[in-house]
């Protein structure tokens, strides 16, 4: 009798599957209430096996949140790389970033403790994300300056100001505090206002 | 023997004294750790007597925070009523409001739970404060439009945008999260940037 070849599992695929199941549980049950054992259970594996891939629940959350932030960065790039007037693209980018954060991070109430935990446990990730976003916007401002649409003595400081102005509309905790307001209208007004500050 | 005239105490003075002692304790010991009995003790009166003036510790805190907010509104009025270019006054007003909030609400670490409790227990106060500040800034924008310095289709929406842009630099929780950054430089850059969005 020949030994049946045991299907090889790709470690990357296992990691991916763990993240997917964990994200589902964090969203449904909440980050604080989910345990690594719960995640392992749904995957039909042992908790010890999950720990071979991730040191802790916090490490799993870090990866999930990093992917959410990567999604936001991708969105920003799409607007930067599009055709057309840099002013219009910056305005659209800001509104889209607000909507992305409002919908991904806040819409589902249970997400809140996951995001809050990620912000407090992995502040470095958030800082890196802000740096990247800042640099992407700086690039778009430079493009606008070259095209004669924008005027800015220092594109880096200008990008800082743009993001600073949109802080309340991008920060999950602040979005949640104002979730009953008409944030979409506010975001559109604010984006137009902020872009006006850059106009040549 | 004539009965010694008992000094009459003015209820307003007692209220004032209670608020003063309570604010001192909230700042030194923290809001959560201070009890009405502690406040009464320092005043040499019974807790029951304190309760004749304020229904609860939360009611005391509401009055203290309302006074802090009134102080901020006074500061805003001073800039609005000053002489000179409306653009320069708006810029100075924004930087001054940031400094006021940073110094009054945040500098003393123990203040934080007092402010956080006030924000969550008395959200209506904060909303009223924002409304007043918004209207004061709207007035300054209208003045700038009349003077030909500012251009704004709708001064109310413009004031909303100005305050929205400065939200991160005015909100105590957000200031605290970034307290290690060079917030003063940031506030100056942001104020100049925001005023630029209004320029005619």
TrEMBL record, chains A, B:
<keyword id="KW-0804">Transcription</keyword>
<feature type="DNA-binding region" description="H-T-H motif">
    <location>
        <begin position="35"/>
        <end position="54"/>
    </location>
</feature>
<dbReference type="Pfam" id="PF00440">
    <property type="entry name" value="TetR_N"/>
</dbReference>
<dbReference type="InterPro" id="IPR041478">
    <property type="entry name" value="TetR_C_27"/>
</dbReference>
<dbReference type="InterPro" id="IPR009057">
    <property type="entry name" value="Homeodomain-like_sf"/>
</dbReference>
<dbReference type="GO" id="GO:0003700">
    <property type="term" value="F:DNA-binding transcription factor activity"/>
</dbReference>
<protein>
    <submittedName>
        <fullName>TetR family transcriptional regulator</fullName>
    </submittedName>
</protein>
<feature type="domain" description="HTH tetR-type">
    <location>
        <begin position="12"/>
        <end position="72"/>
    </location>
</feature>
<keyword id="KW-0805">Transcription regulation</keyword>
<dbReference type="InterPro" id="IPR036271">
    <property type="entry name" value="Tet_transcr_reg_TetR-rel_C_sf"/>
</dbReference>
<dbReference type="Pfam" id="PF17935">
    <property type="entry name" value="TetR_C_27"/>
</dbReference>
<dbReference type="GO" id="GO:0000976">
    <property type="term" value="F:transcription cis-regulatory region binding"/>
</dbReference>
<keyword id="KW-0238">DNA-binding</keyword>
<dbReference type="InterPro" id="IPR050109">
    <property type="entry name" value="HTH-type_TetR-like_transc_reg"/>
</dbReference>
<dbReference type="InterPro" id="IPR001647">
    <property type="entry name" value="HTH_TetR"/>
</dbReference>
